[in-house]
Amino acid sequence: MILHDARLIHRWRVGEGGIVRRALTMLGHPVSATYGAVMAIRNSHYDRVGGQKVHGVKVVSVGNLVIGGTGKTPISAWVARALEARNLKPAIVSRGYGKDELILHSRWNPDTPVVAGSDRLEATRLAGAGGADVVVLDDGFQHRRIDRDFDIVLLSAEDAFPGYLLPTGPYRESIQSLQRAHAVVVTRRTATRRVAEEVVARAKAIAPNVVTAIVHLAPVSWNDLRGCPVAAPEGNVLAVAAIARPIEFRENIARMIKGTVELMSFPDHHEYQLDDIERMRRLAHGRMVVVTEKDAVKLAQYAEMLGDIRMLIQEVRWEFGRKEMEGELDKVAEATR
Fold first, then answer.
1. How far apart are CA 26 and CA 19, in angstroms?
2. Does residue 186 sit in the same domain as residue 321?
């Protein structure tokens, strides 16, 4: 069975950790510097030559600067619905690293095709051949082989901003890369609105011409593994998560119930095995197990073994900037016709 230290990962993300953190920063700095130089060369190349267009297909990219956990999947799903509402024929293109996310896209937008492939340029062509006139690239900011008509970058209000490049920190590339984005959306789970606004201000200082918005990925209700609405769990619970931000998941549960919340975390996209399920049952020891929508996809096959499980549902709530984002999607729709 694979477990990982959720608290250590959280500290790595937010730039905390005291003496240990400072030591790791010193050790990782040469590697981060080399990585940053390589990314700068790569970006300079694409700044000169640009990406490739796919005939007859507009492209909206939803990406981020860090590794995972900013809300790309729910925001991509929202964009796809918004494009469909404009009488377009969207498809979602994903690398397909996590099958759980592909299944969620299909559940949230059952009429929207989902095309998976490591070569997202070819996947976009396949989507166009299948009838799509616009593609939503899930996690597309660094995939610069494809030209895009609207480039959305997500920043998490829970992360350090600015922060360190990999491997010292979670950043895939420099924050100066925001200058090539068309929109910056700050998402928040447990951070306050004020913190999110501070991140927006810092992003605007780097890229003053971008459209900005804030989204609260808000926990709103409970379902069972079949997707049926149920009551909130009572008493103490065991939170099980194989996601990028398990600490925030635990904190959200703690705000919604009266009991205590113990966390059992796995690496992002972990595929659960029978020994994982047995360990969950032993650790739960009669307590209800609470999971994310993403984890529920993979745990459904073990429903009989796990018994009554609660799935926490989150909702995309625009706190500001929605009108401007809708206006940019209107432009994409007009250019498609």
1. 11
2. yes
